[in-house]
Predict the structure.
Amino acid sequence: MFSYDVITPSPSPAMDGESPAGEQGPPNAAGGLAVFLTWEDLCVRPLDGKGSESVPILSKVTGMARPGEVLAIMGPSGCGKSTLLDALAGRLASNLRCSGELLVNGRTQILAFGVASYVMQEDILMATLTVREAVHYAAELQLSETMGREDRIKRAEETLQEMGLSRIAGRRIGGRSSKGISGGQRRRLSICLEILARPKVLFLDEPSSGLDSAAAFHVMDRIGRMAAREQITVLAAVHQPSAEVFGLFRSVCLLAYGRTVFFGSPGLAKQFFATNGFPCPSLQNPSDHFLRTINKDFENDNEEDIEGGQSTTSKAIEILVDSYSSSICMLQLLSNIAIIHKMAKSSMLGFITSFLTFMAIGGFPSFAEDMKIFRRERLNGHYGVTTFVIANTISSIPYLAFISIVPGAIAYYLAGLRGNISHFAYFSLILLTCMMLVEGLMMIVAATVPNFLMGIIIGAGIQGVMMLNGGFFRLPSELPMVLWRYPLYYISFHKYAVQGFYKNEFMGQSFIESQTIEKLPTLINGNDILNKMFQVEMGYSKWVDLVILLGMLVLYRVSLIVILKASEKVRVVTCREMMAGDFKHVC
């Protein structure tokens, strides 16, 4: 969608994914929402026997993982790769204390059951089963009952073939007491069992352990293709990949003893090391060079000549960590995380527009009672239709303003939306107008449908149709042209409320973007995000959306006046006809 490397998270389905081999997969091919994981200042510390914290295993680690891509977490032994995976997956041991911010799709929540799968470093398999039996049993247990048995068997066989296990499918797994499949085949089987259900998040702890270079390449290549095709978020802790496997990764997180040395694309990693005085020699595996530079277990044998002086590995790590913390790569990462947070806030705006206003139909009983009182007093000639509608509108404004501003302020500031008072005032005006629109709609229903139950059903049905066509659940370009887009999309007040909220939040904002380390940071205008991602109509300002909503409000009230007057005329004509009929009958 964008030509630059910027996040385009859900709920927007307009997101392109590209596999390492260049294949493009449709968004959310497996159904459901893709998962963005972000973590900021993540720290993990062990607790000693007295319950106090000691030296951290992870120290202020920040990063993100995107759907359709494979994130490689690399570093020397003991740097915290597996601990980071455990922290992100919610599998930390009880003697470890985790702090920092971990968000799923921009919100603080845990990964729901069945959303994530974890391939542990140790292969734990049933020794008495054959490879095919293990995969088929796993398919019966993991896959949904909505899939037919033939489909489950087909998925199991396809997964066996993807992991290169078809040839040994009839062989027993074996264990300590009996000879079975090899260690590399056990590793591939462990991966096979976890990717059967096509989870939204896949954690891999040393997936290439025990595999030869060719098998490691094919396994990671197929995992990368599957991630792009199914929009799976893959995080893999890799010890030392080959140059071919390293080239498959879309993002790399380099850790050095609990600290982040680099986070970004593999190509930028080479530029980053070279810029800081650690260029990768030609014809050498970049991953080998990175790990050799930041491995201080053999510090005395790993000195580098930097600017004419001798520097130990500890010094090299300090240079890289300090440089990364102030680099364009770090700024870009934080900007992308901020965009994901903004997308989560946009979901909150859509929720307020759709569901908070939907709750206004709960006032239908009082509307029905008001209509009964009006009809009684109208028959007595106390006031006219126009007077009633104007008085009803004015009297409801203070109450609707209260329930718009107070709960709106709580939601607005808790979600961290733009804190300027003018933006909050616009937010409150949109919310108040929507509440008055829903009230006017329900008054029209109460005037035409006197039955209480039928009135709620019809009002809820009209609201539901408008919500579906408001541009939040489905982008405008995805709506069917006939009926749903023309005319329902344009007569739904949700369209103008959602677009007004989005413009109020994103217009005038900028986000940092960069392609290479040497380039100065460039800014992405919030208008581009609105136009390309949410397909917001940018030909007019947010105030025009508010004016349109006010115009619809007036139209609803005028329609109520017309309906009430028309019903009066119908009632008068009906009464005259009945009286005339009775008179003739008497004569």
